[in-house]
Amino acid sequence: MPPGSVMFVHAHPDDESLWTGGTIARLADAGVAVSTLCCTWAEGTKRHAELQRALATLGAPPAAALGYADGAYPDSAPGAPRLCDADFDGAVAQVTAHIRADRPDAVVTYDAYGVYGHPDHIHTNRITLAAVDAAATSSIYPDAGPAWQVRSVYFTTVPTSTMDAIGRRIGTADDAPPAGTPNDEIDLTVDVADWVDRKWTAINEHRSEMDRSTALKALLALDEDTRRRLLRVEYYLRRDLVQGGCPLLPDAREQVIPR
Ligand SMILES: [Zn+2]
After folding, report:
1. How many CB atoms lie within 10 A of CB 203?
2. Dist. CA 115 → ligand 1 center (Å)
3. Mean pLDDT within 155-167
4. pTM above 0.90?
């Protein structure tokens, strides 16, 4: 059965467009309900506003902000703890409440290495997995709405061949392990070639990041052909939580790479 609703849980504004923007646009165009949670950058901040413009470009409704601070930027959520320092149970309870309210069939977040090792991404993976389990269990957080069983979790990732092609490590210390999932472990590639212009427009809505973020600067430095080739495919690992799970997309243009 195709998904009626898909939730994306991201750590920072720009990740939704960079890693999953084509998938969001495809789902929105197919009439699937899309919801987005963003752990950092509170409502009222510059980057939260950029996130909302990016989602509008992708055809998706506005994101909900969990209101934690971005590790490097205390002013991203004045007075709030940094995501990685925040009370873990409190964060899981928040995401659980959103899952029970939005009732997604599939939830998308980062792989366990946060795609390339970013601590906020890794933390978001852990919060999301704990919340998916909690959401299905009525006895925990009983005030957060009726229990809801997510059918599949998808982890956004990048194959090692792509990382080799880029020829650099993005956003991590020099001694960090290289990013990337071995190609034969990728469960799903999503063809977003027809959505790549909207995805690039959405990425460019994150203006305050364009001259700061290593990943975005690297993308900007590429010639257009190379950039389109990189952005036209999105990669996922899949974990089914019930028998049969749930496909990420309602139509056939997703491809499972044979193991
Ligand atoms: Zn990020």
Report:
1. 23
2. 9
3. 83
4. yes
